[in-house]
Write a structure and sequence with these properties.
Distance between the termini: 16 Å
Structural class: mainly alpha
Largest sheet: none
Oligomer: single chain
Order of helices and strands: HH
Number of strands: 0
Shape: elongated
Radius of gyration: 14 Å
Helix content: over 70%
Length: 63
């Protein structure tokens, strides 16, 4: 099993997708937070938790 994560071992198309997701996840999360503050529902809360987790994982280079 490999010891560390190296993003350069990914195919070029997957590196591009990861880069674009990393650049757009924060504005989407901020919009979802504002939406949840205005009209809070269970679905909005679950989506916000998923987006926060995804942004944490992308910025810490876990995936």
């Amino acid at each position: 099993m490999r010891k560390g994560y190296n993003p350069y071992l990914l195919p070029p198309w997957l590196r591009k997708v990861r880069f674009y997701c990393k650049s757009i996840i924060i504005p989407i999360t901020a919009f979802q937070l504002l939406r949840m503050l205005i009209v809070p529902t269970t679905g909005d809360f679950i989506l916000l938790c998923i987006l926060i987790g995804l942004s944490f994982v992308l910025y810490k280079d876990i995936i």
